[in-house]
Predict the 3D structure of the following.
Amino acid sequence: MVDSAAGVECSEGHFHCDSCVARHAETFLDFDNLGQRKEREGHLKCSNFPLECNSGFADRDLAKHLPIDVFKTYLVETIKAQMQAQLEAEMQDRLGAELQRLAALDEHARKVQVAGKHIIDKILTLSCPRCGLAFVDFLGCYALKCNACPCHFCGWCLADCGNSQDAHAHVRQCNNKPAGADAYWGTPGLNDQQIRQEFEEAHRRRQRPLIRSYLNREVEADLKAAVVAACRAELEANELWPIDA
């Protein structure tokens, strides 16, 4: 591959001048192309891809020909796309193993397992209300944005607040907000540990009735105690034990 001072060639010999490869990279990094980045695991392909060329560029060559801020963003997005692809592959493997395991259980045990998994994954695990990506990086402001999809959502109740506008308007008047809380940041004057405790307590108040409602609506009466018992470790870890079955 020829790498001149004026530009860079892809591995199949298509030349891109510095300004062209920069524009190509910026378009690739645009939010509208998130799916394309995910599909290609973050790698920038030749501008003739896929009709005339199947190759891309080496990171060391892009480092020489992209503006430094564009190259830094490209590296971050490449790593994120690769991690996402790895996580999805691992999730598929776990799903396959889980399906095999469930197939080996009797009907009673299978129902208990499915219901317990719903409580743990869908109620106890804090996640984006749209794509389901779990989040653990709460920093204080309750107007949250998912790292994997365009969803803005409320940190008090996890309501989906749409794509184009952030969640501040909802957070300001959320019914799950405790008395005395700031418009966006929880109760004023708390230290970092207390901020986290207030956040966790708010979700315990939200989760307890959700669990009871799920047990009453979706779980057969003779299975409720077994489902709760199957979730005991997670319920205790979240300070929600005991739950009335």
In short: The mean pLDDT is 86. Residues 67 and 113 are 52 Å apart (CA to CA).
